[in-house]
Amino acid sequence: MKDKYILVTGGAGYIGSHTVVELLKAGYTPVIADDFRNSNKNVIDGIARITGKLPVYEEVDVTDNAALKVLFERYDFYGIIHFAAYKAVGESVADPLMYYRNNLLSLISCLELSEEFNVPNFVFSSSCTVYGAPDEVSVDENTPLKEANSPYGATKQMSERIIEDVHGSGSKTGFIALRYFNPVGAHPSSEIGELPIGKPNNLLPYVTQTGAGYLEQLTVNGNDYNTADGTCIRDYIHVVDLAKAHVKALNWLEKNPGRFEAVNVGTGIGSSVLEIVNTFERVSGIKLNWKFGPRRSGDVEKIYAKIGKSRDLLNWTAELSIEDAVRDAWNWEKKIRNV
Ligand code: UD1
């Protein structure tokens, strides 16, 4: 059978690496394109230990169209899953140009080459951040996009718009933008997981690093929100479930060529920051050192996904629980910190 080569930009990153595992399991041949500026080459070995297959990887800066083109000449890509992007909200406020340059140019170079080489299927890594601060807390794909609350969020909104315009211009490619809610957890094998560089911005790595004694104390950002326990609500989705959604998206595009759809990827369940802290304490048996601090600027009070479209269109729903995610994240943290 002919190999179905899938270009996975950012395939050594957190979500990318878990998706490469699921692609290999599903019989695709992923080709990782990553410059390892925010990831580690050990991830490649982790993927190989899980799947028994050493994935192909190419060290390339995806914003560099000429360098990326070499891969399109080498492989007859059947699909592209474009992850390579920066994702730290605060950093994007401090250095917006770095975000606009990296996140938009990487997408544009993938799209230019996808058009030039007639790649039929394209999955884009979007985010629930595109909804800004929505009027309703439970959002579906038709919920109007409010103003982005950071340059990072703006890059995701602009990226979806760029894809929509390419689709509207008569492209033969099918596109799906997956709007992730809050990805958490690690592979249950503890072979791959999240590897934040420096102090983590996101909640769960902060919790597990504090639990492991690597960080001193977690600050819970705000206790005066209009929620049951006063802390913010998010829809935390296990990274393995999220990775599987990419395979389902590819499957759908294969059967529905030339379409463009944006699809939420979440569990439909909201959890508060304190619920995550409590889940960690229960799962790990460790008392976490935490305190309340002020609100973090730009935080949305509550947001979680309506999941009807992912279920009906992609035949995908989350299977793993928040306990599974916290347990897997904790096992991964213990492994990398030798706890
Ligand atoms: C945001 C974006 C998400 C994006 C992600 C990238 C929204 C709604 N979500 O996630 O789309 O992909 O950034 O990084 O815009 N918290 C603490 N203490 C900490 C860290 C976090 O209390 O040390 C709280 C936050 O204030 C928030 C919750 O935990 O209430 C989740 O925060 P985080 O993990 O950073 O994710 P989002 O900000 O929801």
Tell me what you see in this structure.
The structure is a single chain. The chain has 339 residues and is α/β, with parallel strands linked by helices. Helix content is 41%, strand content 19%. It has helices at residues 14-25, 42-51, 65-74, 89-94, 96-116, 151-168, 203-211, 239-255, 273-284, 308-314, 322-337; strands at 5-9, 29-34, 56-59, 77-82, 121-127, 138-139, 174-180, 182-184, 218-221, 233-234, 236-238, 260-265, 271-272, 290-293, 304-305. A 7-stranded parallel β-sheet has the order 3-2-1-4-5-7-12, with helices on both faces. Strands 6-15 form a two-stranded parallel ribbon. Strand 2, helix 2 (42-51) and strand 3 form a beta-alpha-beta unit. The protein binds uridine-diphosphate-N-acetylglucosamine (UD1).
What overall geometry do the principal axes of the alpha carbons give?
globular
Report the C-alpha radius of gyration, rounded.
Answer: 19 Å
How many individual helices? 11
Quaternary state of the chains: single chain
Strands of the widest sheet, in order across it, are: 3-2-1-4-5-7-12
Mean pLDDT over the full residue set: 97
Name the beta content range. Answer: 15-25%
Broad structural category: alpha/beta
Small-molecule binders here are:
uridine-diphosphate-N-acetylglucosamine
Level of helix content? 40-55%
Number of strands: 15
* Contiguous uncertain segments of 5+ residues: none
Biggest sheet features: 7 strands, parallel
Order of helices and strands: EHEHEHEHHEEHEEHEEEHEEHEEHH
Terminus-to-terminus distance: 45 Å
